[in-house]
Amino acid sequence: MKEIRHKWLLLILVTLTGFFIDYFSKTLVVSHLSYGIPKKVFGHLLQFVFVYNKGLLFGINPRGIFPGIPLNLLLLVITIVTIGFLVFFYKRIPKHNILLHWGVALICPGALGNLFDRIIRPADGVVDFIQIGLSEKIHWYIFNVADIYVTVGMAVFLYCLLRDETLKKASVYSSQDFKKQSSAGF
Known about the structure:
4 helices, mainly alpha
């Protein structure tokens, strides 16, 4: 019972802490940066550029897939369904798989932070402001703290799924080898 409480405590604490860090960073950006004007932090390597993003992570626009549905409604539904799936999945993660707990727990504040932005700024979209680049012409999409949580959480999540699949295959192969050796009289 204690382990179950710790499992849910991790999800709640990571989600709330991550959400408030994301919200605070976006609030600072909106109140202190001019829209669209880069503020260099480390030259072109790291800049803060306040923009609104009406699409998904890294500006991906799902309008081509679902052309008839209003974009904001579509993104709200996708995010709510995703959060519901994550909680459903989290409930079923074995207690020993701590890394997978962390992966899912990191995705949640990112999804929640961007969902909250869409609700409080329906006409504008999500506040993005972090830009990484090599020069004035070579740079990555502008993103936010919530996007970092989602990206890191997904990387951990996928690593765990691939690792577990590899372990499962390894155990199947080793048990088959054991059976072959046993039947061969070794």
